[in-house]
Amino acid sequence: MGFDRVAERFVGKNVIAIAASHPLPLDVSGLLQVLNDSLDGPLGNADLNRYLPNCPYDIGTTYHQEGKNRDARPYFVAARQSFESAKDRMGVARCTAMMGVLDNEAGDYLSAQRSYMQSLESCEAIGWRLGAAFCLGYLCNNFFALGDYASASLHNGRALSLSRELADENGIANALDTDGLIHLIQGRHVEAERLCAQALQLYQQMGDRRGEAFAMTHLGMIALEHGDISAADVHFTQANKSRAVLGDTASLVDSKAGLASAHHQRDTSDGALAIVGDRLEHLARFGTEGVEFPFWVYAICSDIVLDAARSDATKGSRLHQQAGQLLDAGQRELARRAALIDDPAARRRFITDGPFHHLLASSSS
Questions:
Q1: What are phi and psi of 39, to 5 degrees?
Q2: pTM here?
Q3: Within 13 Å and on the Cβ side, how many CA atoms surround 8?
């Protein structure tokens, strides 16, 4: 969602930043690794030494963009330690927020929330308003994932206002896109489409292909909701092309699942099943980290497989079993994340009101 996907913008001045539109992210992470290894240790130059933590930070950022969160984490830890040694409060705030992003995407929402709040307090204390805007956006995403849409909307509104004051087009686009998702979850599809379309236009103007792919995916989801299958097909196809070029394999799970759903609703079951099989292989290998809406994906894939089982007597038993395994995997992941939430009321709300969580229940009925 929104701000969780733009870590490369969450930087101070005079640091290496990885552009969201870079076509070869794997090459970038390799180059940064070489730089990091070359710069390991003191350079004997105080002005240069203060930039050393940015290499591991940027390696972590690039791995995160590629959906490789486990690879990203040690680099953010190393960067934060270096920033702390250098007494660089902005650098520490950046790393703390990114550790929160990784926790949020892994489903450890309360740990993420603590990191976001800590980073926000630091940003406000040093007067870094851009960093504060990002932290507010991160908190919005956190509350959204927990099913607390009132708190999500409140923090997103603050992030949008601050981004507008700073004339930060990227922050504005992120907040508009996230606002569209909040409206989508609450059934206000027309307003959701308007907001995500505004975000898409801004991303395109900035040349932000990664942001564009997210907005396209969300517009595809909205189109599915109001039955415009042709539009959904176009949006998901474009998002898939961008993500394939960017190497964003985790986010491809969402947009490819959406395309499978569009194929399914057009009665092209073979194409839908092929996409589902490809996505399930990714989930089996890498899990749900970096997937934006894993429970939506599980429910869609299960429905497609279950419908195929009903229409194909020769494969029905095997497909029924596969559909059951999908639902079971989704429900286990939901239970795992819920178990990390200490507060009983917040845990219940997460299970019942979290984004697309109800689809798992309806798919099993």
A1: -95, 5
A2: 0.84
A3: 19
